[in-house]
Write a structure and sequence with these properties.
The chain has about 170 residues and is mainly α. About 75% of the residues lie in helices and about 5% in strands. It has a two-stranded antiparallel ribbon with strand order 1-2. The protein is globular.
């Protein structure tokens, strides 16, 4: 019974991994938000708010001027999704590997981060075989940072709860 309970704890993380896999299976054209963003906001309002921001990502210059307002907003949404989804994945993996229980101790945080990072690598590899998608090392790095953030949040949360119990 204990092994079944342990395996069931992985279901949320596995479900998220499936969702990420399905999104990686879609082409850019199937996922693009540009037309929706263009319908709900103006190029001028985006330029007024984000016009001074410019940076390089994956060898491309990213700014409202270089990619357009709607594409700039979509870029930010996509990268926030990378960060957030891997933060959540790492949190779910910490739970799967022991959550509040002592079992693995602090190693569960390292394992959760490592598993999330390995999944990020496999996800980018999968994208390289999806038409209209590209694999980017920068996305793996962003995913890894998101996973580290998620693990850190759980560690702080559990430490805070532990301090409350004393």
């Amino acid at each position: 019974m204990h092994k079944i309970k342990f395996l069931l704890r992985f279901l949320p993380a596995l479900a998220l991994m499936l969702v990420l896999f399905l999104f990686s299976s879609q082409s850019y054209q199937e996922q693009t938000l540009v037309s929706d963003i263009e319908k709900t906001t103006s190029e001028q309002s985006i330029s007024d708010f984000f016009g001074g921001i410019s940076f390089s990502y994956g060898g491309r210059q990213i700014s409202v001027e270089s990619v357009g307002g709607a594409s700039f907003i979509e870029f930010l949404i996509r990268k926030a999704a990378h960060f957030g989804s891997y933060a959540l994945l790492a949190m779910l993996l910490v739970y799967a590997l022991g959550g509040r229980e002592r079992g693995m101790g602090r190693r569960r945080y390292v394992y959760a981060w490592g598993i999330a990072l390995l999944y990020a690598c496999s996800d980018e590899l999968h994208q390289s075989f999806t038409p209209g998608r590209t694999a980017m090392v920068q996305d793996v790095i962003l995913d890894g940072i998101g996973a580290a953030f998620g693990v850190t949040i759980v560690a702080i949360w559990l430490r805070r709860d532990k301090m409350k119990l004393k």
